[in-house]
Design brief:
- The structure is a homodimer of 330-residue chains.
- With 330 residues, chain A is α/β, with parallel strands linked by helices.
- Chain A has helices at residues 9-17, 21-33, 35-45, 64-76, 108-112, 116-119, 138-154, 169-175, 194-203, 217-229, 250-267, 269-298, 301-311, 317-325, and strands spanning 52-58, 95-101, 127-133, 159-165, 180-185, 206-209, 239-241.
- Chain A has a seven-stranded parallel beta sheet, sandwiched between helices.
- In chain A, helix 3 packs parallel to helix 7 (138-154).
- Chain A starts with 8 loop residues before the first helix and ends in a 5-residue tail after the last helix.
């Protein structure tokens, strides 16, 4: 019988850094659960090295899981050398995978059952796969995902693949946790609404037209090219085609990810992005604190008294707020 | 040349209470615009009598505007007497209409141009019609609508018809500002998703199947009856049929609104609802205050310094939040 893993964050982090998968899984559960335990884990993780994070996002059914599974294999071969450059690939000794489904109330294990392709890697000790689902509200997940990515980094995993189902704002939030964001489409995507398209253009560093054995690839590529032509930027997102089911195009995709990583590093954009991301994360923590403060105040006797004064028309909500929170700084 | 209306809230409110429509319009613009001016107006309005508010909500194209226009005419005849009771209708000397479109970035005037049927009442001095649209974010509208309803009450309008386009949470929020909520459907509604149906069931005090000259009325009525059968409540929402275009069923609908109003008053439910609504409004004001506080802190030098410390991995967002906001009360 194995002893239960310790609950002390320091001891767990030590264990995870030495390769202990049970300790790592426990840390991620603590992050997912929120509250003081999540906070204690984050306190350690934010002081450790950040993994290079590749986000994959797209609509349900686009084939993200299969593509992610393919990328695990490619990543195990190391970072590709630049075209025309000499030398060997930069090794990647471990790969972490976080599969996030904001729409699912299920916890990790249940989701993973579906991810058949990923099971190919389930016995590889250099690969760590974990699903995250909404325990509470969506906002909680927006906080938990960056924390979880950092825990993987603190545990010594240099690369994390972050797979998320594309569902509006959440997709943008979670994509914000990645260094390179891959938007996965399928042929026929041209029929999507303009708003959906605009949101994806904003977050995409690379486009992948998956299921490229189906008809409509050329039209989708043309649509994307047209939309990209409307914006000016230093990095123009390349458009790749894959058939992840048949393992076609995966290596080319990984080369493109490597190109983007090199672009980010050489231009200083990686540091700028990460700094901006940390400011966003800090802002989210402040907002979550404030939301809890509202809950706390609203549960108190003073709030009930002010609500009573409102009923009797002796006050208005703004004066009541001043008394409950102190004068409005404006 | 008319002089510009005064901007002093007290003077405007006096003018509005004496029937000055320009003063009333100006007060509503101040509420819509948010900020200190909205607050100054709300301070007065929350101390005045509350109008009886009838909300109409439903999907775009359900015919809410035509129905609202019909109800204006019915309301001008006064509150209907209870079935079997003697006496005359309780008079309603003025009717206010707020048409809220959360999805439109247009300001009042533009929207009203479309509301042809309402133009029938545009020259009636006892009717005041106003559109509200999102000036800023949706949350702002959730604050502004109850404030606007109260301004109409403070100006002496005893009845307000509040028309909103049904768009998820916003619909529920705005419906929360009404005493009686009428959910407007059309034949064929049975094909909607269960989630959409459940949301409407939650807010509906009355159901109206409008465009009842079209096929599918019986099926929609059966669907509704089935769903209503699943819940137990003191007030079972009646299901009415109207053809607002042909002015059919409007008087019956107004009688049903009057029945619900009487039910609320007799059971004490009106007071309970209004008290609960005021608590919700106070909570929203607290949340808006806190959100502004996050904006203020995030714009400051201390925030920038903490974000810099995060980049250098010298801290974590939770410790940083403690320094920026004071210790976390938990």
């Amino acid at each position: 019988v194995n002893p239960a893993p310790p609950r002390d964050p320091d001891a767990l982090m030590d264990g995870a850094a030495r390769g202990g998968r049970a300790a790592l899984a426990r840390l991620l559960s603590m992050v997912e659960g929120g509250g003081p335990a999540a906070r204690a884990v984050a306190r350690l993780a934010y002081r450790a090295a950040v993994p290079y994070t590749v986000g994959l996002t797209g609509a349900p059914g686009a084939g993200k899981s299969t593509l992610t599974a393919g990328l695990i294999g490619a990543a195990r071969g190391g970072w590709p050398v630049a075209e025309g450059a000499d030398g060997d690939p930069e090794p990647i000794d471990q790969v972490g995978v976080l599969a996030v489904d904001p729409s699912s109330p299920l916890s990790g294990g249940a989701l993973l059952g579906d991810r058949v392709r990923m099971q190919d890697h389930a016995t590889d000790p250099a690969v760590f796969i974990r699903s995250m689902a909404t325990r509470g509200h969506l906002g909680g997940l927006a906080l938990a995902v960056p924390d979880a990515v950092r825990v993987l980094g603190a545990a010594g995993l240099p690369v994390v693949l972050l797979e998320t189902v594309g569902v509006g704002q959440m997709e943008v939030d979670v994509a914000g946790a990645a260094d390179t964001t891959v938007v996965v489409l399928t042929p026929g995507w041209g029929d999507s609404t303009q708003a959906a398209k605009a949101g994806l253009l904003e977050v995409a560093d690379l486009f992948v037209i998956n299921k490229a054995d189906r008809p409509g690839v050329a039209e989708t590529r043309r649509d994307l090219t047209e939309m990209l032509g409307l914006t000016e930027r230093a990095w123009v997102p390349p458009i790749l085609s894959t058939s992840a089911d048949r393992a076609e195009g995966i290596d080319e995709l990984w080369v493109a990810v490597g190109d983007h990583r090199r672009f980010l590093a050489e231009t200083g954009e990686l540091d700028r992005r990460r700094a901006s991301r940390l400011a966003t994360e800090l802002r989210r923590v402040l907002a979550a604190r404030m939301a809890r403060e509202v809950d706390r105040v609203a549960a108190g006797a003073a709030f009930a008294a002010e609500a009573g004064a409102l009923v009797e028309r002796r006050t208005d909500p703004y004066d009541a707020a001043d008394r409950l929170l102190g004068p409005d700084p404006g």
